[in-house]
Amino acid sequence: MATPQPLQLLAPVSGVLMALDRVPDPVFSGRVIGDGLCIDPTSSTLCAPLAGVVSNVQASGHAVSITDEHGVQVLMHIGLDTVNLAGHGFTRLVEEGQQVAAGQALIEFDADYVARHARSLLTLMLVVSGEPFVWLVAPSGRVESGQPLLELNAAPGLSEEAGATQGQAVFSPSLTLPNRNGLHARPAAVFAQAAKAFSATIHLHKQQAQANAKSLVAIMALQTAFGDSLQLSAVGDDAQAAIDTLARLLAEGCGETVAAPAAVAVVASEPLTLLRGVCASPGSALGNVVQISEPDFDINEFGADADREREALANALIEADLALQHLHDTAAGEAEAQIFKAHQQLLEDPGLLDQAAALIDTGKSAAFAWRAATENTAAMFRQLGSALLAERAADLTDVGQRVLKRLLGIDEQTLDLPEGSILIADQLTPSQTARIDTARVLGFATVGGGATSHVAILARACGLPSICGVPVQMLALSNGTQVLLDADKGELRVQPDAAAIQQWQARHAQQRQREVFEQEHAALAACTRDGHHIEVSANVASLAETEQAMAMGGAGVGLLRSEFLYLGRNHAPSHDEQVATYSAIARCVGPAHNLVVRTLDVGGDKPLAYVPMESESNPFLGLRGIRLCLERPQLLREQLRAMLGCCALTRLHIMLPMVTQVAELRLARQMLEEEALALGLSERPKLGIMIEVPAAALMADLFAPLVDFFSIGTNDLTQYTLAMDRDHPRLASQADSFHPSVLRLIATTVKAAHAHGKWVGVCGAMASERLAVPLLLGLGVDELSVSVPMIASVKATVRESALADCQVIARQVLGLESAGQVREALQLFHEANVETLQVMEN
Ligand code: PEP
Ligand code: MG
């Protein structure tokens, strides 16, 4: 069906026209989404450029698309990177599915706010369905909202719909979507563009829903997610070629790097023997598969009357809040309690509540409105491309389901699990995890999630081994299948043979025996066989963890990650709250031990809702840690002031993260001095820096005279030295802190510090690895700050070592080629040491 007469597109806002090529975003300037125009707006209401149906309006209100009766789709996008404003500054005036007239107001925006908080206010109007157009005005200069700007010709992209319906439909096999964030704008644009190369009519199917494969907007509206099962259909002359090409493109990630191309093909027919993931919680277990999934609910779209639906939602929110309060109060530890507190805060989130209320006002049922609000927001989080926000999307989905169940009168049932269960799931939610009977569950393995996800935190808190990022084929394993979960190696072995089971059992029994022995001796000092003493302290992020650390033999706190006070809330912690928290922790550590409090280490990868930041294409190289704090000096000053409040209670050490420049240290020291003077303090806390950027390690000789101590953050030092993202699932095995380059930087740092009489700690995860202990001792490190459960084991390893031997092995491995070689050498050293110990005992 061709457009019967030329269609004119009106200016959606008043402003100044600008060539699309000049838009500083390659997705727009490269016309990946579609051709069109850009306006630098002078008005603040976005109006419809054509009559049609609102086919998509982003929950955050920054983008909207209209589709007319002939299939012409036009996308309007206000500003660049405005999705990061999470709805602030935008008021949506229309809903998805609503018919609008040309010129009708769609979105109001606060131009001043958007201009100040987003990368740009430039507003795009793009013909995403691909029809060619001619300009009705000169493509530059001032235009008024509602003025005709473009005229669309009869559309090749449209005529195929009618023409190609002849012939047999061809279907692809089922495909599993490998893209971590589903088909969000970029992969969807790549896919739609590839589909447009074929004359066939092509559809992408997800369960009962389908989308025109040539329409970016329709694909995005499908709201696909990682692991979704999709199918393609095509009708027309080149249908088979289209299916072959597009199925391959989907399997390969549509231009995005995906975990394992092999894992995305049609459901595997070969038996699975070994699946690999990433360790989320250490340990190992032999058990049987129990597949866990959340059911889909049948929901009526339309409600009775708005008042009753509003009341139903309000009641469901109260009930959900009470249930979460109960989970919070009965949580096993602080980390778990914090997660449910964060869920309670989501129940009050004005953004979610407003979205749901607006939908109820249009006649939708409370359940429909709540589900739409939570799912849209979760989808937006996933599309932001941040692993951390994607994990927060999982929390949102969890809260969404909890309230939905209340609305639908479905009880939260305790999972009835057989003993020895190993839970397998696409994604486990914190609510599911909290309902698990830990006497029956031995571990988890999930497709989604990450080592920083809430489920990983819960798994660690319960001491259950867990891996994540496992290929989706795992979901095809039958319930009851025997599996060997080795989280330390990031492996799930399916139906292990008798030899593998025997080997594991022997290793497991030995480990258990050793753990018991280590716990019994946890209070002994960490002193090597040849009399060298080092401090083994703890990495903590709460008072509860500090209490555990002190009870389990920790010699104080080597790293208090203060972020826990700031994340997951919509306002900064007050001075009093900060003082109370630091003081409680300081009292617990006491005056005889060190408490090393790290100043706020957030930034692009861990954004704070109340510290708006521009989006960064590479947040790990952006405004992180001390850089952010020096940009927001008030935030840092308030934190320093609060920390100074507990000076008298403990041996307070303040530590600055991500320091790269000597000037950063000087500025922070000056602020600390000013705050201490203002408080009239006569004593000063110690001030040190983290060495986690190669620049700081290489210039340690210049930093050393200016600090009281160094603590090496091997997690970041490794990612920056090796140029490998620390959370990259496929680089996880290579991004190894045992790489000789990282070891040389540690050696450089220690040498410089000792030359100035300063001490050096290691607080990265490397310090918690037993294999690393002799190496770090040999390199001259003075303190190891480790995860709480590892305190006893690291102390025992120190006691079994001789410093002189450690120095020899440390010198040797510095000359090796790879992390693998270093690990091998250390393993041999360990075995030789065990033999020496046996000889000594006999
Ligand atoms: C590190 O980078 O090693 C470190 C301890 O800091 P974090 O893991 O909190 O970034
Ligand atoms: Mg770090």
How would you describe this protein?
The longest helix is centred in the middle third of the chain and has 24 residues. The chain is built from 27 helices and 35 strands. α15 runs parallel beside α16, α16 crosses α18 and α18 packs across α19. About 3% of the residues have low confidence. It is α/β, with parallel strands linked by helices. Bound molecules: phosphoenolpyruvate and magnesium ion. Phosphoenolpyruvate binds next to β29 and α22.
Architecture blueprint of SSEs:
Layout (H helix, E strand, L loop, with lengths): L6 E4 L4 E4 L7 H4 L5 E7 L3 E3 L4 E6 L5 E5 L5 E8 L9 E3 L6 E2 L4 E5 L1 H7 L2 E8 L5 E3 L5 E3 L4 E5 L3 H8 L6 E2 L3 E2 L8 H11 L5 E6 L2 E4 L3 H6 L7 E7 L3 H13 L22 E3 L1 E4 L2 E9 L13 H24 L4 H14 L2 H12 L4 H18 L3 H22 L12 E5 L4 H5 L6 E6 L7 H9 L3 E3 L13 E5 L4 E4 L3 H23 L14 E6 L2 H9 L4 E6 L13 H15 L4 E5 L26 H7 L1 H12 L6 E6 L5 H17 L7 E6 L2 H5 L1 H4 L5 E4 L1 H9 L17 H16 L3 E4 L9 H7 L4 E5 L3 H10 L2 H11 L5 H23 L1
Helix pairs in contact: 7-8, 7-11, 9-10, 10-11, 15-16, 16-18, 17-18, 18-19, 24-26
